[in-house]
Amino acid sequence: MNKMICIRQERSKDIPVIREVNKRAFGQPQEADLVDKVRRNCHDMLSLVAVADNEVIGHILFSPATIEREGGTTQGMGLGPMAVLPDYQRQGVGAELIRTGITRLDSTGCPFVIVLGHAAYYPRFGFEPASCFGIQSEWDVPDNAFMILVLNESVMQGVSGLVRYRPEFAEAM
User: Fold this and answer.
1) Which among 33, 52, 159, 169 is placed 20 to 30 Å from 14, CA to CA?
2) What percent of the chain has pLDDT over 70?
């Protein structure tokens, strides 16, 4: 990537642009609608943008997800959606968004990040199949596409069960 990109927290003036980035990246409005609904209903999210030449070219959303197990729940974060404008895809923008988000979440003590995504892409960031930890998705999804990144091994020791995303995700499925 030859342009200098900056990753930062979303600002209110970015919201219409984030919507457009998601619509263009996915070729449909569903992901943009999902981001808007989560933003409206959730105050514990992490929403980052990638900026090049003062233009928002990418976006990533992390929102609360819980692992329900016998005796309680463990809260972490779910990654997604992540969107990069088509002209900037395959240039490392998404990777920078993911790395920055994981670093910020790790610094807050977040015990895990879960993702439903490309099985060949996310392992480079440390994600592993969630099933290896006895963790299942609330939806019927391919095993190799449902992955977890454990950030705090002591909190996650022996944690297994069913992952639930925010209700906005179930509505979008």
Assistant:
1) 169
2) 97
Domain tally, the chain: 1
In this structure, are residues 101 and 62 in contact, taking their beta carbons and an 8 Å threshold?
yes
**Exposed/middle/buried for residue 138 (C-beta within 10 Å: 0-12, 13-18, 19+):** middle
Give which of 65, 30, 25, 31 is closest to 45, Cα–Cα. 65
pLDDT in tens, 126-149: 999 999 999 999 999 999 999 999
State how far Cα 82 lies from the chain centre: 6
**Burial (CB count <10 Å: 0-12, 13-18, 19+), residue 125:** middle
| Whole-number Cα distances in Å, 62 to 11, 34, 111, 113 | 15, 12, 13, 8
Q: Which residues contact 91 (CB under 8 A, 6 or more apart)?
A: 1
Domain that holds residue 48: 5-172
Mapping DSSP to helix (H, G, I), strand (E, B) and coil, where does residue 165 land?
coil
